[in-house]
Give the backbone structure.
Amino acid sequence: MLSRFIISILLLASAPAHAERAQYDFNPGWKLLVGDRAGAAQPAFDDAAWKPVTLPRAWNEDDAFAKDIVDHSTGVAWYRKRFTLAADTPGQQVFLEFEGARQAAEVFVNGRRIGLHENGVTAFGFDIGGALVPGENVVAVRTDNRWDYREQATGQRYQWADRNFNANYGGLPKNVRLHVTGSLYQTLPLFSNLGTTGVYIHAREFDIPARSATITAESEVRNAGSTARSFGYDVTIRDQDGRTVARFSAPVQSVAAGATTTVRASSRVGNLQFWSWGYGYLYDVVTTLTVDGVAIDSVTTRTGWRKTAFGDGMVTLNDRAIQMKGYAQRTSNEWPAIGLSVPAWLSDYSNGLAVAGNANLVRWMHTAPWKQDVESLDRVGLMQAMPAGDSERDVDGRRWEQRVEAMRDAIIYFRNNPSILFYEAGNKGVSVAHMAEMKALRDRYDPHGGRAAGSREMLSTELQSVAEYGGEMLYINKSARNPMWATEYARDEGARKFWDDFSPPFHKDGDGPLHKGESARTYNRNQDSFAIENVRRWHDYWRERPGTGTRVSSGGVNIIFSDSNTHHRGAENYRRSGEVDAMRIPKDGFYAHQVMWDGWVDVERPRTHIVGHWNYAPGTVKPVHVVSSAHTVRLALNGKPLGAARQSERFLFTFDDVAWAAGELTATGYDADGRQVSQARLVTAGKPVALRLTGIPSPHGLRADGADLALVEVEAVDAQGRRNPVALDTVHFSLTGPAEWRGGIAQGPGNHVLARSLPVEGGVNRVFVRSTTQAGRIVLQARADNLAPAELVLVAHKVEVNKGLARMPAPPPVRLERGPTPATPSFTVSRIAVAVASSTAASNASAAGQSVDDDETTSWASKPGEPAEITYRLAQPADLHEVSLKLAGWRERSYPLRILVDGVEAYRGVTPKSLGYVTLPLRHARGSEVRIVLDGAASDSAATEMREVADQANTDTGAGRVARSALAIVEAEFYALPPVRK
């Protein structure tokens, strides 16, 4: 320290009047050793034999998709790095920012222990200035990702270190940054270890039509000097093109030595572009501290603004209702042989695919996502729900404190990211007190961000008075109060390799080993069956969308977007519920959702997709399934019409017993007036004769930084260059030049992870090539028996690294394809709820009102041996069109019912099973009294069981608590058609 003091004195005369802030990419130049080594924290330790790596890098990345996550390698691994700062100026502050570590990270600088972070999820930072020396410095990080890791101070395990869902990519799998500031500076948003909150940018008083809002910037400012300082605060807002759109400031103020204060400035700003779904418009907000008019510290915060509201059962974005349509995705968001540690452009590629498939929401599961994915969703225009850290239950004591701390850190770190709309307090319902505590956390650290605090469930009246959204994990919920959206649904699985029963490799739909006694039909589907199941499951949510009554569903998220190395069933060691596979190649389910979800609520852009391919053996006769949002669909083969379709679930059109013939299969969609609105084609491809390699480009080219990846697609194509959809050829790859082979994935031994030979599936596959730190020409060659080979040349471009430090890479460009929020309504009112004035029942009369109380935790049920019927008196006579019911046991039980309106039978039938609500059509019936009668014993035959769910309480629909001779109604609703417009 004496030498540092002397150097500081010598530099004082030549030091500038102010110290400019600098931020460095701290990812290059690390050394990695798997195992524990005494003395590894010391600067003089010999690490010459350690593996050179560029972060982010999980030390056990090879395990990704090669092993079940319970078998992921765990233990201690060390990371070391040497770096030199350009200068050491008086008052200089130096901070390390880690975007996360798994599980624990103990940080040393020049042999001095700086601190420890243990939760395995959130970002953290350290002030390392006091440990630095002139010249070269050494950072060493000891990581420990044991599944049974315990918090050192308490001995408590972390609830979210769960082998079921939280893939264990150990070490430093996220980015690291270095920040250098002067003694008067704006803090970093790193509450963990630093205890600071950084910059907070927010908007209020929105005028969406006028494109204006009041923008506020506030910064936590610290004076680390020995004397009080006075400073000014200037704010500059720049648009996507770098143009200044606003400037404003706060009056000069003072901060005492060693103290921290918060400074704010606000201004009305016009001509704004509001962030929206598929419109990731972002601004750079530059907040600057000045002393005597000279800038001494500037922070650039990339953010966007949007108006939100949560009420009447709906979410509105920029004054337009939007139904949640998307995916519950593992926060690992991983790739084969890489894990989560992909470059930012590849995060955008994956998340951008979800937007292209018309998803508007990602609900990250169990733990907060890493910064790169959060910022990626900002850029592509994809809303997100952010959890803290949890498992499948509410907890107490230190485990609850750990969750609160993780949520606090995540809120502070991500509160400037416009894509976050929801803070999730728990993956399973939390208590009223815990929900209130999480909401208070939001109110303290992000009171103006326009984000709803809630949790899974939150269905009761009491919980809805505290939470601001809710929704079950397996079922559909509705509300006239807080928006209710399913936090995960459609859990079935299907491998991309399996088209249908008629296509190579001729996998029979649903064939496979039992899982917990459950048939493989739910987790080993073919693609056609998988896509159809997705259509059926979404239909329940579409049917109860905004515009369909007072109580509505605010949508739901499908589990999952991309195949994941977690929570698998059956013969594979990874989950295949994704609408794209692990290399992000779309399955038919992706296109099914693209059709059904193309609109904010109602479908706004008609689409049509033919499920499957059109390459079969002569003599094949099969059903052709078409997913379409058109009113009607016609199918033609080589121009010849193929008859009428059988329509089901609104979006599914099936043409039975179609005889295959080579050529072109065309599905054309028409609106209600007979006008063509969409079309899809399948063409028979010829025999594969060649391979084709296509690079999926990064917007900035391949960087020779040792971490960038090239994603390359390989196809088996016919003589006309068309992909053959049933090809399964094995492809052999060779690689030359400054690159590392990371390969891909396919069904087979070890899932072919890291293998140099792997098959195409359905005629296509993808592989990874990783750059080294050497620039140059890379040649990838592919060959297969009886196919012409292919070659792809890549060029890795030099990245400057100066003594361990590099410039921050430019972020990928934002995506604006969907355009700004439309000004038109997002739905048409299709039915009108008729209010209930009173309800009576001969059995269990005191509970009759609970069937119409907008509380899905309460219900009415008749008692065995007593009349199984209930009567509702409407608020006024009405021409009833439909009755919607949530019946106990909805997924397992069918009820034979009679419905009478003013004593006249308007419905007789057996209710179908569903994810929650059934809508029963009524014969024309006008009246003011509706009686619902159980017309025989209910049936539990063909009940859908969900044995794969770890906590079976989550699958409970109430059927086991109600006799089959009883009628049990959770909620009843009555509907009339809207008035006809003249």
Remarks:
- The CA atoms of residues 45 and 639 lie 75 Å apart.
- The first helix runs from residue 2 to 12.
